[in-house]
Amino acid sequence: MKQRTITAVFFAVAMIGGIYGGVWPFFTLFLVIAAGSLWEFLGLMLPREQSDFGFKRLIGTKMGLLAILLFVCYRFPDQFGTQRLQPLLSDWPFLLTFFVGSALLVELFGTSKAPFQNIGYYAAGTFYIALPVAMLYDVASLSDYHPHRVMGIFWIIWTNDTMAYLIGSQIGRRKLFERISPKKTWEGTIGGAICTVLMAWAISLYSNDFTTAQWLAVGAMVGIFGTLGDLVESMLKRSIGVKDSGTLLPGHGGLLDRFDSFLFVVGFVWVVVRVF
Question: What is the pTM of this model?
Answer without folding.
Answer: 0.93
